[in-house]
Design brief:
The chain has 442 residues and is of the alpha/beta class. It has three domains: 124 residues, Response regulator (Rossmann fold), CATH 3.40.50; 116 residues, Beta-Lactamase; 165 residues, Alpha-Beta Plaits. Strands 2-1-3-4-5 form a five-stranded parallel sheet, with helices on both faces. A five-stranded antiparallel sheet has the order 7-6-10-9-8, sandwiched between helices. Strand 8 and strand 9 form a beta hairpin. Helix 12 packs across helix 13. 28% of the residues are buried.
């Protein structure tokens, strides 16, 4: 049921029109004096306005102009009633916002038909506007969600590889304005930055994740490392997700990238803590055992000798007792640095605990190479240390066992290196002893 207002200075026309409107199931209202129309519209705007063109107080064209100049009234559909046939006048009324014309004398079926069409058109326009508003609200909501997410997101047309949408994080990562991104082909825009799904992405030359998602219809994932716009290396976990059309085919691909740099750095740090001594950052006992196992396996394959060295600082307890534990820690860190400076990249220096250090020397052809390294170590360790402002002399004792001469498994070699270390200490310290020397001594 619609509210329809009839404005005409002819009472007979109003009576006839109002009767037709009421019989059609609508609410009819009328106005004989046109000068009161605008105040009436302000008080109670109708769903439809039927208005005569020629009226003595204010004519219909003038009223159309006034209604068009009032934003909240201009949406009222207006059908003009006239006995005129002037095409210029009719054209002017249409330009001023009239939606239709009804000629006098009024024909009931024509009037009702034009009223129905005008009301249905208005309903359709309102429905379209409501849908438009709903879509705008949905887009605003989606944009707000996308731009508050920490992940970078873009939407790609798989047929053209064009970027259809991108959120704030994505734009910040590639350091480009939105108008530079939307509509661009992803493979051309991002080959050297974060476009991991393109074949130019990395040394393994992975296939395109977009193609993988299109072919499988499933989510594809890939982790990669690439520089951001500031040149910093960023670890990214990328997912490509298909958006399907009405027939179920993927017609959009959502690329969601998450910066996992901090997570990977934490994992790296935790792994380091698990296998390294927190004071000296040398490999700890667990990693040392693993490195020794690897060295022995390599020695067996290539017929090479492996040297196992155990170190013990002479009178280290006295340093802690006289200078304090902080000075003792400084000493241990310096000892670690000096020992690392005496070996090759392929060798391993580790701290077992306290003042106990160890080393694994690989790719050896004979024992003389180990003797040379041991002398170099004693010389390096024998140089004075600056602790708490004082120059302190500290020496070390070294015990050595050799694979395969002294044994062929980790436990046996460590045990024999320990026995050699005991003899080095017994021999007066600041010296090195090989297990073979012990066996040959009387």
């Amino acid at each position: 049921m619609s509210h329809i207002l009839v404005v005409d200075d002819d009472g007979q026309t109003i009576e006839q029109t109002a009767r037709l409107i009421t019989n059609a199931g609508h609410i009819a209202d009328f106005l004989l004096e046109s000068q009161y129309l605008l105040p009436k519209l302000e008080r109670s705007p109708p769903d439809l306005l039927l208005m005569d063109v020629n009226m003595p107080e204010i004519d219909g064209v003038t009223l159309l102009k006034k209604i068009q100049a009032t934003p909240h009234l201009k949406e009222i559909p207006i059908i003009m009633i006239t006995g005129e046939t002037d095409e210029a006048l009719i054209q002017e009324c249409f330009q001023l916002g009239a939606v239709d014309f009804v000629n006098k004398p009024i024909r009931p079926l024509e009037l009702l038909s034009r009223i129905r069409i005008a009301l249905e058109t208005k309903a359709h326009i309102h429905a379209i506007q409501a849908q438009k508003n709903a879509l705008q609200r949905a887009k605003s909501f989606t944009d707000a969600i996308l731009n508050t997410m920490e992940e970078s997101i873009c939407v790609i047309d798989p047929n053209t590889n064009e970027i259809l949408e991108a959120n704030r994080v994505f734009l910040e990562q590639i350091n480009l304005a939105r108008h530079r991104v939307i509509g661009e082909r992803c493979s051309a825009l991002l080959p050297d930055k974060i476009h991991a799904c393109h074949t130019c992405a990395g040394p393994r030359n992975e296939g395109c994740l977009l193609l993988t998602t299109l072919c499988s219809g499933e989510v594809a994932s890939h982790e990669f490392t690439a520089p951001n716009s500031q040149g910093q290396m960023i670890h990214t976990l990328l997912h490509t997700l298909p958006l399907r059309d009405g027939s179920g085919h993927p017609d959009r691909i959502v690329c969601l990238g998450r910066d996992i740099t901090q997570s990977r750095e934490r994992e790296k740090h935790l792994k380091h803590l698990a296998f390294h001594d927190p004071l000296t950052h040398l490999p700890n006992r667990q990693l040392f055992h693993d490195r020794l196992h690897q060295a022995l396996a390599q020695g067996r394959r290539h017929g090479q000798m492996v040297g196992v060295m155990l170190f013990d600082l002479d009178h280290f307890k006295g340093i802690n007792d006289t200078l304090g534990h902080a000075a003792g820690d400084d000493l241990l860190r310096e000892v670690a640095n000096r020992l690392k400076g005496c070996v090759r990249e392929s060798d391993t220096v580790a701290r077992l605990g306290g003042d106990e250090f160890t080393a694994v020397l690989t790719n050896l052809s004979d024992a003389s190479q180990v003797r040379k390294v041991a002398k170099k170590m004693l010389k390096a360790l024998g140089k004075k240390y600056l602790l708490t402002g004082q120059k302190i002399a500290v020496t070390a004792s070294i015990g050595v066992s050799l694979y395969p001469d002294d044994g062929d498994d980790l436990a046996d070699l460590l045990d024999k290196a320990d026995k050699a270390l005991y003899h080095a200490k017994s021999a007066g310290r600041d010296t090195v002893r090989f297990f073979a020397q012990i066996e040959c001594s009387p």
